[in-house]
Amino acid sequence: MILVTLTDKNNRNDVDIEISHVAPSASQFIQLRESIGWNNLDSLDEIEQSIQSSLFWITIVRGKELVACGRVIGDGYMYFYLQDIIVHPKCQGLGFGQMVMNGIEQWLLTKAKKGATIGLLAAKGKEDFYARFEYLKRDGSALGLGMCKFI
Question: What superkingdom heads the lineage (predicted)?
Fold first, then answer.
């Protein structure tokens, strides 16, 4: 766990945050996802199982509120997928997304070996953010387009 004090550029207030690699509670995770308009499963137990099945978590807590997170899912050997990279709307622009990605990238450096694939599905308009971390846009020319199915 790391405690950090930042200065909020917008209101010039100090912001105390706690960065950790501890998974959030299901209720914290649900609230953060809902803050950006994402849907959740109906079963709290299934959400908890999903949280616990992750390979890696990084969370940022401000006060007692989860304000940013990211996780890695996959098989832990050949395939790693970045998932749920979320920053609460009221905390966007404070560098929390960068902190989450830096933590994930540091973890991946120790786990992903040569030949492994690291993937993600970027939300519309967020592609340039991930490009800063050397993720490539799949435009269909060399690798084909990425696809997904929502249930």
Answer: Bacteria
